[in-house]
Automatic annotation (TrEMBL):
Residues 327-340 have a biased composition (Basic residues). The keyword Ribosomal protein does not apply. Pfam families: HTH_1 (PF00126), LysR_substrate (PF03466). Residues 311-340 are annotated as: Disordered. PROSITE patterns: HTH_LYSR (PS50931). GO terms for molecular function: DNA binding; DNA-binding transcription factor activity. Coiled coil: none annotated. Residues 12-69 form the HTH lysR-type domain. Keywords: DNA-binding, Transcription, Transcription regulation. Belongs to the LysR transcriptional regulatory family. The keyword DNA-binding applies. PANTHER family: HTH-TYPE TRANSCRIPTIONAL REGULATOR YBHD, NITROGEN ASSIMILATION TRANSCRIPTIONAL ACTIVATOR-RELATED. This is LysR family transcriptional regulator. The lineage of its organism: Bacteria, Pseudomonadati, Pseudomonadota, Betaproteobacteria, Burkholderiales.
Amino acid sequence: MKDTFNVLLSKLRMKQLQLLIALDDLKSLHKAAGAMSMTQSAASKALQELESMLDAPLFERSKTGMIPNQLGHCVIRYARLVATDLTALCQDVAEIRSGRGGRLAVGAIMGAIPECVVPALNRLHAGQPNLSIEVVEDTSARMLPQLDDGRLDLVIGRAAVAADPSKYQYRPLGDEPLSVVVGYGHPPLPKKEVQLRDLAGHRWVMYPSHMPLHALLEREMDLAGLQMPDNPISTASTFVTVALLQSSAELVSLLPTAIAAMFVRQKMLRVVPVTLKSPSQTFGVVTRKGGVLSPPAEQFIELLRARAAEPAQLSTQPPIPAPPPKRAPRKRAAPKRKTA
C-alpha cells in the first residue's frame, strides 16, 4: 500500500483523473479524448500509465463501450472526489478574494430542518452575510454518497444507514420523534387517545420501503397486531404528503413531529393523539473521517451543537379538538308596552 501511495504521489496527474471521469461518462476512449482535447493515442497512453501505477486494469471493453471494473469504479469515485474538492477550492479562493465569502453545502434529513438546521443557518448567515449556502433535503442513504463525492460538506442525518459507517465521523445532535397526522379538515375523533386500529378505515400515505420511517411504521403496525395497508400511497416528499392529507379526510400519515408542528401552526394538519411504542430515532452531524472542514462548516457545526444543547422548543400539540357546541339563537325580548 505504501509503495502504491508513493508512486501515485510522485507520478499521478490531474489530467489522468479527468480522463477517468470522461471515460466513465462517455464510455468511449475516442469521445473522452475529444472532450479532453487530447489525441486518442495520448489518452490511451495516459490510461496505460495510470493502470501501470495501480498494477491492474481499470476498464473492460464491451459492445456498449469501455465499462469500469470493480477497481475502476473505486478509482473513479475518488477521482470525482478530488475533482470536486479542487473545484470547490478554486471557487472558495475566488469568492474569498472577491470579498464574497465562501461556500457551504449542507445535507439534512427532513425532521432536522425546522428546529435544528434553520435556526443554525440563520445565525450563521447573520454573522457571514456573504457566505453562499446550499441546503439539500433528502434521506441519509442518498446524501452520504454526495458527502463521499465532496458535493456536500456535511450531512445532518444518520451514518448507521451506510454500508460502512466506520468511514464517517458521527456527532449526535438529538432525537427525531414522530407524529401521526391528518389533514386540518379531518372530522374530530371521539377519543382522547387513539389506537392505530382506530384508523383502519383510513388510507395511509407512507414512505417508500427503503426508508427507515417505513420500517418504523411496519414495526408499529406489527406491535398493534395489524397488517400493513395493501393500498398505500408511497412518497418521500413532505409537500406531496401534506397536499394529499389536505385533499382528503380519508388519508393519514406519519411525519417527524417538528415538521408536523410547523404545519399544525399553519392550520394545514392536525396531530392524531396516537402514542407510538418505538423509540425515537436519533440523528447527528455526519462528516468524512479524516476530511478537512472549511471554517464555515466548522462554525455551522458549533451552532448546531449549541442549538441542540438548548431546551427543547417543540410544543406538544393538542389532540384533534371537537367542534364547539352550537349555541341556540338568543330570543329577542318583546318590546314593553307603554302604559297610559
